Amino acid sequence: MEHGKLVFGTLVVALLLVASPAWAVLPKAADWQMNETSGQMIDSSGNGNDGNPTDVVRTGSTYVFDGSTSRVAVPDNNSLDPVDKEITLRASVTVPSGAMNDDSYDIVRKGLSGTTGGDYKMEIKRTSDPTVGTLNCLFRGNIGRVNRVANVDIVDGNRHTLECTKTSNSVVAMVDGESYSKTGTAGSIANGKEVLVGAKTAVPLDDVFEGSMDFVGIDIAQ
């Protein structure tokens, strides 16, 4: 009888996991804890995606970006390209309250809107009220471009945990556990561009993040 319970319980768990893929934790393609006091931004995922910081102030637990010249560049690596797999961008950020000094602050991105092979990004987008900024998640692949905005102000001086997820048929923006989804298929994303943390482009500098980051991560299904 106990054996039967064990088999039945195992079967139920297996069925639930199959029916609920969102429960699964995606493997880390890059995991930047931002707790170094000097040198490179170290990737703790084991994939070697270390970054090169410029004009970033480090406290030992956070990176502070000045909104002007700060950024971190991570060399291109195939492990950072989701291709047609599920991908989640993660970050913990604090943006000072007040007017944003640009139309958006990039948190992490790989590629631009015209990049061959597609692109993805997590950014804080300024609204018509310059003191209000919301999370924008964008993924562009070989099928289409899908983005989702989370209608929550995160330019308020408080720490926020953010996620952007692309599945096979949706994009989900999440702020502090509250999710906003949009149905759509981006398709495969793979390009030869570096990953930039805290800026859209290095030359010329654009959409430079202002505030602090506790961590940034990229998770991609295998």
Quote the beta fraction: 35-45%
What is the strand tally? 17
The number of helical elements comes to 1
Please tell me the CATH architecture by its name: Sandwich
Describe this entry's structure for a reader.
The protein is mostly beta strands and 222 residues long. It has a single domain (26-220), classed as Jelly Rolls (Sandwich), CATH 2.60.120.200. The chain has one helix and 17 strands. The protein has one helix spanning 2-19, and strands at residues 28-32, 52-54, 57-58, 63-66, 71-74, 87-94, 104-110, 119-126, 133-140, 145-150, 159-166, 170-175, 178-183, 195-197, 201-202, 205-206, 210-220. Strands 1, 3, 4, 6, 11, 12, 13 and 17 form an eight-stranded antiparallel beta sheet that branches. It starts with a helix and ends with a strand. Mean pLDDT is 91; it is low at 1-23.
